[in-house]
Amino acid sequence: MNTVLITGASSGIGESLAKYYAEQGFCVYACGRNQEKLTALSQQHSQITPLAFDLNDKAAIFGALDKNVKLDHIILNAGTCEYIDNAKQFDGDLFARVINTNLISVGYCLEAWLPQLNSGGQLGLMSSSAVYVPLTRAEAYGASKAGVSYLAKTLSIDLASNNIGVSCIHPGFVETPLTDKNDFPMPSRITSVQAAQAIYLGMKQKRYDIHFPRRFTLVLKTFALLPFFIWRKLAIRMIKE
Ligand SMILES: NC(=O)c1ccc[n+]([C@@H]2O[C@H](COP(=O)([O-])OP(=O)(O)OC[C@H]3O[C@@H](n4cnc5c(N)ncnc54)[C@H](OP(=O)(O)O)[C@@H]3O)[C@@H](O)[C@H]2O)c1
Fold first, then answer.
1. Distances in Å between the alpha carbon of 16 and those of 9, 73, 197?
2. Where does the signal peptide begin and end (predicted)?
3. Is the CB of 179 within 6 Å of ligand 1?
4. Which residue minimizes the CA distance to atom 44 of ligand 1?
5. Any idea what the CATH number is for the domain that residue 51 is in?
C-alpha cells in the first residue's frame, strides 16, 4: 500500500486531500492541531492515521511520525493567512506568525521527514497563485508563499539525484474556512474536493507546477508577464476603485 503524509489535514484542502488519497487506496498520515477533527477523519476511513501537533513546535514535528514509516508522497499543505491592513503601521508580529507557519515550519518538516521519503517519491509544497503578482494586503502571506515557491524550485533541482520529484502547488480560490473569512470577491472559486483531485492527479503525474483552476491561474500568469511598473499602476488603481 502506498503511503502519504499530509499536513493541514484537519480542514479545507488538506482534509479533502486526506479523504481522496484514502479513497485511492493510500495509507494516510493526517496532520493538524485539531485532535477531534483528525480523530473523526480516521473514524470515517480506516487507512487514515491522525497525528496531532503544532507545526511551530520543532520537537513535536520530530516526535510525530514513527521513524520506521516509509513515505511515497509528502504534501506540506498546512498554512494560515492574515492580511496587513495598514502597511504604514506594519504589524511585525503578524508577519512573523505567517512566515513561521507557512515557511519556517516547512524547513522543519523537510528535516524530519525527507529521510523517510522513498526513492521515486513525490514531495508537494503548498504555495498559492498569489505569488504570480503582488497583491494588496498580502505582504505577509505573499512573502511566505513566494518563499515556498523558491524553495520548491531549488529542491526540485537538488533532490533530482535522489530520484525524488517535487510539485509546487498554486491554487486559485478554494472554498475553505480560510477563504470564508475573506471580505472581497473571489472569482472562479472551486470546492476543496476539486482542489484535492487536481493535486492528487498532479502529484501522480509528477508535475512540477500544479495550478488550478486554469481559467483563473492562466489570467494571473499572463498579468505576471507584464513589466512590474504596469502591474503596480493597475493594482494601485484597483485599490482606489
Ligand atoms: N483556500 C484557498 O483559496 C487557498 C488558495 C491558495 C493556497 N492555499 C493554501 O492551502 C493551504 C490549506 O489552506 P485551506 O484553505 O485548506 O485552509 P484551512 O481550511 O484553514 O486549513 C488550514 C490547515 O492548516 C493547519 N494548520 C494551520 N496552522 C497550523 C499549525 N501551526 N500547526 C499545525 N497545523 C496548522 C490547520 O490545522 P488546525 O485547524 O487543526 O489548526 C488546518 O488543517 C494553506 O497553505 C493555504 O495557504 C489556500
1. 8, 16, 9
2. none
3. yes
4. 79
5. 3.40.50.720
- Please name the amino acid found at residue 90: F
Here the cell at position 112 is: 524530519
Is 178 touching ligand 1 by the criterion CB < 6 Å?
yes
6, 11, 149, best to mutate for ligand 1 pocket (most atoms within 8 Å of CB): 11
Provide the residue type at 181 as one letter: K
Q: How many CB atoms lie within 10 A of CB 63?
A: 12
| Domain tally, the chain | 1
Whether residue 164 contacts residue 72, with contact meaning beta carbons closer than 8 Å, is answered with: no
pLDDT in tens, 108-141: 999 999 999 999 999 999 999 999 999 999 999 9
Tell me, what DSSP letter sits at residue 241? -
* Residue 109 and residue 29 in contact, taking contact as beta carbons nearer than 8 Å: no
CB of 127 closer than 6 angstroms to any ligand 1 atom: no
Say whether 47 sits in a helix, a strand or coil.
coil
CA 205 / ligand 1 centre spacing (Å): 24
- Report the C-alpha dihedral over residues 16, 21, 22, 27, rounded to 10 degrees: -130
Instruction: State the closest ligand 1 atom to the C-alpha of 189, by its place in the atom list counted from 1.
Output: 3
**What pLDDT is recorded for position 185?**
86
Asked whether the predicted pLDDT for residue 184 surpasses 90, the reply is no
Query: Distance, CA 112 to ligand 1 centroid (Å)?
Result: 20
**What is the span of the domain harbouring residue 25?**
3-240
Ligand 1 contact, 213 CB (< 6 A): no
Whether the CB of 11 sits within 6 Å of ligand 1? yes
For β-strands 174-175 and 190-191, DSSP reports them as parallel
- The three grid cell numbers given for residue 83, joined into one nine-digit string: 492580511
